[in-house]
Amino acid sequence: MSKFFAVLKKILKDRDLRKKTIVVLALLLAFRFLAHIPVSGVNINQLKALFDQNQFLGLINLLGGGTLANFSVLAVGIGPYIYASIVMQLATQIYPKLEELQKEGEYGRQKINQYTRYITIPLAILQAIGMYALLRSQGLIANLDPFLLFTFIATLVAGTMIILWIGELISEQNIGNGISLIIFAGIVGGVPFAIGQAFSTITPDQIMNYALIGGAAFALIAAIVFVTEAVRKVPVIYARRIRGGKSESAQQTFLPLRLNSAGVVPIIFAISIVLLPSLLSNYFIASKNVALAGVGHFLATNFSSTTIWYNIVYFLMVFGFTYFYTAIVINPQKVSEDIQEGGGFIPGIRPGKPTAHYLNYIVTRITLVGGLFLGLVAIIPNILQSLTGIQALLVGGTSILIVVSVVIETVKIFQTQLVTRSYERFNL
Questions:
Q1: Domain boundaries in the chain?
Q2: Do domains 1-200 and 202-394 have the same CATH topology?
Q3: What is the rounded CA–CA span in Å between residue 81 and residue 70?
Q4: If you average pLDDT over residues 144-159, what whole number do you get?
Q5: Which residues of 215-229 are buried (b: 16+ CB within 10 A; e: fewer)?
Q6: Domain 202-394 has CATH 1.10.260.40
Q7: Of 376, 379, 328, 331, which is closest to residue 355 (Cα–Cα)?
Q8: CATH 3.30.365.10 fits 1-200, yes or no
Q9: Which pTM was predicted?
């Protein structure tokens, strides 16, 4: 904690960092302001009751930074952009041209971001239409004529693009990822309300259950910090080189491989898929077709968060996506080539393919631990919900993981910038 306050004091003293911090806070406040501008015609009270029964809506609310709870103009949230990012990441693994474009540095990154935004628009339209259909099936909104329906959809799609714009403005300040900070702000913004609601509904016989949840939350935070900071250091030796007529002795450094290189992305991927049956069940149950209604009841019964099959499938999907996303983030072959081009080698391992195989072996082993941990983080809220009977634990593990990860990364960015500025002043 003292380290945190020391960093904060240095930030306030640095004029440039202080200015950037104020700009980011102002943008987050603007986002929170827009999150409270409701779309007309929606019954908010009935919507909140629907929230308590539908985890898919809770996920969309989480990804949108808490905007769906009030059904604001930003209600669709950042979900379409995340799904578009998933599509682009898959596409870069399938199409060689996109893979080559990804390797072209800043230009390639900008082009891929541009394609991602293009894909975001039709996905946002589909999600807005789906929201309208869901609200209509639940009687939360009146039947709209074509013009009003177009206005409704256009408003929600524009809200998604506004969130992307705000996220890019935040990212330009170079003190954190804009989208991550928006999700962080949404989660933190909902904490006071959640605490107030918990205290207003607590009964004497539930005190021990809430104490259990509180203890589990603190233990989970400690575990997340430990796993997030845990790295496997692979020793790398760079051979003796001659530069400018001067001989440089051999140097040993380390290649840090994170225990959890995938972050929170596998959980978001997995929950986006496992909650789809819950969403579809709402449509099928309301159908006049007996067969479809039966399918809806089957999905609602077997894909509830309290069922063991739901949690098993959820855990396995998180575990699988951890390996998938880690393979995207860390390319052992590319890392091996970079080490060899720099004149380095891993002690006891020949350069080239043997090094790539060795790195792949290490990454596979540490990802096993990271995947198991993420899987447990994902299902712990559901387990606690079943044990305590308290229903207010919607994707709690994911929320804690996002908050802790964003805080750690933001503090590291600030520390890096402070060190850079101290170095620049020293050189001057």
A1: 1-200, 202-394
A2: yes
A3: 21
A4: 88
A5: ebbeebeebbeebbe
A6: no
A7: 331
A8: no
A9: 0.76
